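Quick start: what a row looks like.
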Amino acid sequence: MTVQKKISRRTFFAVALLPALSEAKPLVDFGQGLGLFSNQENPISRNNFNGLALHNDPEPELDDFNKLKSNNFSRIVVEKKLNLKLISGNTKEEVSFQFRKNHHLRSQEISKLNHFLKDWRTNEIKEFDAIVLNDFLNICSLCSGKSNALKVSVHSGFRSKETNEYLRRNSHKVARNSMHILGKAIDFSVPGMSAQQLTKIVKANTKGGVGSYPTFVHLDSGPQRSWS
């Protein structure tokens, strides 16, 4: 009888503790890399890396990567009138610009672009290379046609080293020395325009790198080269 009472008590307490145990936070969350006393989400979590194949291009490595420097001294001039709406392909954030013919970008407009092109996973902002911004905006103006209005989906702008290393571990052929790390590359697409059509326009209007993919185009201000 004594043994039966002890078993009953153990069973009772085990059943009573089940709800609390089910709600308890694990000591270590191996999926997120968080511990028991973490009070915020890990910015580089798996939840932030959905759609890797779509948004991270297999960019070729550059041997002279460390010699590349961003050009932040050139003027950025939009030659054609343009009403531009940029949409993040990852966060759906939207930002709009109105450029008149031969519009010289002001510092506020450049800051607005830099903020939009931030690493959306870590919220880190990088001052973008003036050449890639100039090429990107003028390519957008050419794509707008006679309407002078265009919506563009941006899939990748600046990429922190932390983000890039994560992508290298979890995605296919991500360059160790990606131009995205320097703020010299933008991956984008134009709704209603095929990637093949966009690639032709980009190649004809840049002296940098162009990567063509099924759903987007990579543009950078590195050495002139192309890949697919």
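That is the whole record. The domain at 57-227 is CATH 3.30.1380.10 (Muramoyl-pentapeptide Carboxypeptidase; domain 2). The helical segments are 2-23, 52-55, 107-116, 130-143, 161-170, 195-204.
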